[in-house]
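Input sequence (508 aa), recorded before submission:
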Amino acid sequence: MTRPEGTPNSEQRSFLGRSTQSALHGGSTYGASKGKSAQGGRMQGGSVQGKSTKDGLFRGMPSQWIKLLLLLLLGLLAAASFVYNQTLIRELNEKERNAVELWAKALEFSNDPANVATSSDVGEDAAQQFIIEELIVGTSSEIPTIVTDSAGVIIQFRFLEEEEVQPGLIGDYEALNEPITITFGEGEQRQTQYIYFGESDTIRFLRYVPFIQFSLLALLIGLGVVTFRSISRSEQSSLWVGMAKEAAHQLGTPLSSLYGWIQLLKDSSRGDDVSYQYIYEAENDVSRIEAVAERFNKIGSSAELKLMRPEPIIRRVVEYMERRIPQFGQEILLETDLKITRPAALNAQLFEWALENLIKNAIDALPAGAGSKGDTSEGATSVGATSAGATSVGITSAGATSTRATSARATDTPQKRITIEATEQNDRLIIDIIDNGSGIPKSAVSQVFKPGYSTKKRGWGLGLSLTRRIIETYHNGKISIYKTAPGQGTTFRIQIPLPAQKVSHQPE
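Predicted structure, token format:
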């Protein structure tokens, strides 16, 4: 038989089946491509490990090795600079000592009475004084110098201010450089003097150069790491945005075809209430897939925010999750406590998505055991259950939870419970999603919002990352783990700014 035009083939029906199941469970519609992606590398921490897509010198090299190589090169540069600096300081120290020794010899020569007398006899005193004072003393570096006698009394000093000359300075110079000893005179006139000298301004500056270089290198390394991470996050973000938009685009054609088939089924089932009810439910599920596709399409685009009341959106999400909880194979008490009256600037579709991700995350955190699907013991609690002694949950107009029945006795195992609380605090909308599940270890608290982080075997680790993007990037809000403890549950807190005054808002 010839297949009518627009009829989905077997591959399309298989893809739609997987997409529908994934959408109902709040997962990604990328299930068909997940296995293929896994062949190129395993998804961990928001990055694909395996063959690198970078070209050029580092082609085929993992990013962590590139980081280590850059750090190694910078370390070698710092070490080479330090070694060269110390070598230069040693050479300058040697030259300065030679200059001071030359000056000491000139000083010794000029103070020796025998040399002075001989020079006077031959008439060479003026020439010798010119050589000593102008060529030796005048051309020596500005090295701070102190001359003392054998008793340690300061006789003279050079290139120092008078207030700087203190007895303790002699000890400092002696620690830096071995003093130079000069002697002159004969017999009782023989004198011994000591020359203590420090370091010139050039050497003192060079000693600080390594610290300046290390500081600059540390700054460059920090900027490099921040830039590298920023580029990496941008690449990851572009990858996820591209995948999401491609998924939304690919879903568009089969969704249009499904709506056409549903309309044909409606026309052929007029008067058949049972069939019409099935068609109605199928249409709701297709609309749900369309909403998921629209969410994916909004990723990476500027979201349009409108002033609207948050509580109807929260109620819609809770009601939807109540209907889907049996699919998770658990019986969970889903509660709300909404104490908000003011509107907030929201994008309804994205905000619903964020809340759904947090509730699903809370469901995953609930431990298996008593209260799971199939538990018929007295006192077991279920959502929408009709068995005797079971508790059903409903939402009142005020937003509070009403309980229509209570059990005769409680079980020893605590009831699995998820509570959504909403309040207004200092012009901010505060929404807490509270569960009494397994909690989050301290070591994982800083990781949960990172793309790719997941404790589930088949999880992509995108739910909380997308939630954070929706709240912080699109709604200018903040999401955090308000409190958590292993075995005591977790509270995720959303904060969204509220208008300063009550204003008219868009209908929900």
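Checked by second reader. The radius of gyration is 41 Å.
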